[in-house]
Structure formats: structure tokens, C-alpha cells
Amino acid sequence: MVGLFVAAGHIVQLVGMRYTTAGKCAFLSAVYVILVPFLVWAAGGRSPTAWNLVASCLCFAGVGMISLNSSLIPGLGEALSLLGGVLFGLQIATVNLYASDCDMMVIAWMTMLVSSVIAAIPAFIFEPHPTAISASVFAGILYLAIFCSVFALSAQNIGIKYAPTAVATILLSMESVFDCLAGALLLQETIDAKTLIGCAMIFVSLLVSNLHTKSQRQNQHHEQEE
Predict the structure, then answer these.
(1) Do residues 55 and 205 touch, judged by C-beta distance below 8 A?
(2) Which of 95, 97, 118, 188 is the most buried (most CB within 10 A)?
(3) Which tens digits make up the pLDDT trace of 74-103?
(4) Do 20 and 75 contact (CB within 8 A), yes or no?
(5) CA atoms within a 13 Å half-sphere pointing along the CA-CB vector of 202
(6) What is the mean pLDDT of the chain?
(7) What are the φ/ψ torsions at residue 101 (nearest 5 degrees)?
(8) How far apart are CA 80 and CA 82, in angstroms?
(9) What pLDDT shows up at residue 188?
(10) Alpha-carbon distance 145 to 147, whole Å?
(11) Whole-angstrom Cα distance, residue 47 to residue 158?
């Protein structure tokens, strides 16, 4: 199931990027920040608190400040990007559902295996067979496969097992902040005041979520001692 959600999420997200801007795609894909606590709750987990909702909404708004450069106009690309965010939310919620009883590395490797097989099917059907691959393209493929897929997915699954779900989703949304930093360092993109405000909003949401989680654990510890 996790592999299915990962493959489907990436496919609809990549197709959606052909019909919208990268900023709008990043904003709409980050909808999982708000969805995941409620998906986990629907699956029988702990219900989200008011602080979880405040932190998630603040983080989502921060992602929007970073990613959006113009008004959001609904269209095919936006709809597919939003669907991708829902699928990634289902992926995280499903991993959380089985995290306590399963080896996270097994889940990570099975996820990559299943998603690779699923993604290969439409690739062979719809994509032209490459006649040659340059060294730079091959290096890019290796980077995406090793660091962005194998390492990132393994680290994400292990983190979801030990971090509270609401905190984990907000930490995953830090991707938008690193996008801005990478663009500035590698592509010489400028960081304007709106982007800095968005980064600050995400940072505050992390503080709210982490401080609330720490307070909850302290209260539970005191109750157990009593």
C-alpha cells in the first residue's frame, strides 16, 4: 500500500507540473501537513489537538508564502498537484499505522520495489525508449535514486516511527525551505522578504508543535508517576 501511494503520488505530481508552476505544485503538494493527523485519527490513532491544528495551518501558510508568486487559479495542474499531496498524506499515514510492528527498513525497501514496478509500467507504455544517456543525465539519475529515493525514504520511515505524526509531517514540509536555499546557492535565485516571512512561519510552527509535544510527554510522565 505504501509503495502504491508513493508511485501514484509521484506520477500525478510530475504530470501536474507540466500544467502549472513549480511554486503552485509545491504549495498544493504540502496539503499532507494538514491531512496526516486527521488521516491517522481516522485510522484509529490519537486525535489531533488544537495545537496540532494551529501548527499545521501556520506551517501550511508558510509554505504558501515561500512557494506562491501569484494568485492560485484552479486548473488541471493544480488539481493533480493537490491529488499528489493527498496521496503523500496517505503514504505517511499508512507508514505510521504499521510503524510500531514492522521493521522500517523492510518497509522502505519494499516501498521502493513496489513503486518502481508500478512506475515502470506506464513508463514502458507511454515514454519513448532512450537511445543514449549522457554522463550528466546518468549522474542526475544516480543522485535522485541514491539520495532522494533510497536514503531519503529510509530516513523518513525511521523518523515517522519515533517522531509524533504531527511533528513528522511539519518537519517533512521543511522541504520547501531547503528548496529556497538550494535555489539561492545553486541557481543564484534571490530570496525576497515574502520568502523570509514564510521560513519564519514554518520555524514558529515547528516550535509550537515541538513544545506542545514535549509538554504532553511531561504531563504523561507525571501522571504515570502519580
Answers:
(1) yes
(2) 95
(3) 678 878 888 888 898 888 888 877 777 778
(4) yes
(5) 27
(6) 79
(7) -110, -5
(8) 5
(9) 76
(10) 6
(11) 22
Q: Which residues of the chain have pLDDT under 70?
A: 45, 69-74, 165-166, 210-226
| Residue 189 CB neighbour total at 10 angstroms | 14
Q: How many Å apart are CA 209 and CA 79, to the nearest integer?
A: 29
DSSP-assigned letters across all residues of the chain: -HHHHHHHHHHHHHHHTTSS-HHHHHHHHTTHHHHHHHHHHHTT-PPPPHHHHHHHHHHHHHHHHHH-SS-----HHHHHHHHHHHHHHHHHHHHHHHTTTS-HHHHHHHHHHHHHHHHHHHHHHHSPPPS---HHHHHHHHHIIIIIIIIHHHHHHHHHHHS-HHHHHHHHTTHHHHHHHHHHHHS-----HHHHHHHHHHHHHHHHHHHHHHHHHHHHHHHHH-
pLDDT at 166: 67
Torsion-angle region of residue 23: left (phi > 0), alpha (psi -120 to 50) or beta? alpha
Closest CA to 36 of 95, 112, 107, 99: 95
Under 8 Å CB-to-CB from 210, ≥6 apart: which residues? Answer: 167
